[in-house]
Amino acid sequence: MSIGPPELVADSETAAQEQFDGVDATEVGAPALPLFGRRLLADRAAMASAAFVLVLVLIAIFAPLIVKAVGAPGPYAADPSARDQFGDPTGPSPGALWPFIAMLAGAALATASRFAPVPPIKRYGWVLISGIAFLAGVALAIAFWPSAHHIFGVDKEFRDLFSRVLYGARLSLEVAAIAAAASLIIGLTFGLLVGYFRGSVGVAISRLIDALFALPLLLLALGMAAACKLARGCLGGVLHPGLAVVIVVIALVNSIFIARVMRDQVLSLREKRFVETARSLGTSNARIIFREILPGVLAPIAGYAALIIAQDVLFIAALSYLGIGIQFPRASWGAMLADANPVLGTAWWYMLFPGAALLLTVLAFNLLGDGLRDALNPRVSRP
Question: N or C: more exposed end of the chain, with fewer CB within 10 A?
Fold first, then answer.
């Protein structure tokens, strides 16, 4: 599982100019909001991803209630009776997957209706098909799930996989959101200071950021997490294996290239005419940073935050997959995928469901981030 920086920061020098430079401080105001809304609503992929992210967040928040409502065991409760005739863990209960099959079929038909030659079907068919598929999925869930012992089957420890996937979503989004917020704050702060103030200190910090950016980020995160996994922890024993290490490692690693991109953006904005005018009027540096430059970089941050969360979810899964992330017995998608490797040939469900959850989550956040970025960039033409 390889992870690198998002496409947005693949080439920082051009990314700041081409993808972020489209929105400056004079364009982020009330008149720009209706245009932003129209451009975002016109991006169907982004809106579908936003709907998926909203549903995922609700599932993560209400995971305990959902598990209780469907009658599934908790994520840490083992069910030794969930064995087949050979003593191996059992798969999904009969009929338990029909709701998902109905919704997936509806999504496929709704997508196909967009290419129908009949204009009314092309324009409104996807709404009708999506509604029918959703109602069919709900009806099938009501019919099959109350009698299902384990909707997604059980893992090798005979724990309910449905509960663990839901709790894994909760943990992944929680850690990703905290790490993304921390990395954005750190990266934005350093980017503003280094980009605006010039001098030997700023140049030294810029060169340090460039040097760290050249390192393989996943390997850097692995090294930091592995160091903190030792018996004494790291930072003088302040950090020990667990959620705190994962959050700190991801936040520090991501803040490196956030700082670089923000620095390049600030270097571009500080030469704009409105900044020169404010400086000539004797405005203080702090006021220029917070009133003139900061608004110009906050708008692109909105789109970039979704991309950062997507990368953080992958980082969390990668660290847990390699055994230095979320610790047992907490539910983690990466740890589930690692445990599924030895039994992939016989217990397909153990790899399928956490893998599908990870794939759809990362895809949704990436599409949403791309949609927000394009909607905020007036240089991107819409079809």
Answer: C
Task: For residue 237, give Cα distances in angstroms to 227, 229, 243, 245.
Answer: 11, 11, 15, 11
Task: Give the angle subtended at the CA of 60 by the CAs of 247 and 326, to the nearest 5°.
Answer: 35
The answer as to whether 93 is a domain residue is no
Residue 330 falls inside a structural domain: yes
Is residue 126 included in any domain, yes or no? Answer: no
Q: Note whether residue 127 is domain-resident.
A: no
Q: Comparing 233-237, 257-261, 354-358, which segment has the lowest mean pLDDT? A: 233-237
Residue 125 falls in which region: left (phi positive, over 0), alpha (psi -120 to 50) or beta = alpha
Concatenate the DSSP letters of all residues of 164-207 into one string: HHHHHHHHHHHHHHHHHHHHHHHHHHHHHHHHH--SHHHHHHHH
Q: Coil, helix or strand for 244?
A: helix
Rounded CA separation 96/160 (Å): 13
Positive/negative CA dihedral, 14, 17, 23, 25: positive
pLDDT in tens, 175-190: 899 988 898 888 888 8
DSSP 8-state assignment for residue 241: T
- Provide the CATH number for the domain around residue 358: 1.10.3720.10
Q: pLDDT band at residue 246, thresholds of 50, 70 and 90?
A: confident
Percent of the chain residues past pLDDT 70, beyond the cut: 81
Cβ density class 91-119: b for 16+ within 10 Å, e for less: bbbeebbbbbebbeebbebbeebeeeeee
Which residues, in sequence order, are CB contacts of 84 under 8 Å at separation 6+? 90
Domain count, the chain: 1
Lowest mean pLDDT among 19-28, 138-147, 297-306: 19-28
Asked if 295 and 221 touch (Cβ cutoff 8 Å), the reply is no
Residue 33 belongs to domain spanning: 7-79+164-376
The string over 268-297, giving b where at least 16 C-beta atoms fall within 10 Å of a residue's C-beta and e elsewhere, is bbbebeebeebeeeeeeeeebbeebbbbbb
> Is the four-CA dihedral 339, 341, 343, 349 of positive or negative sign?
positive
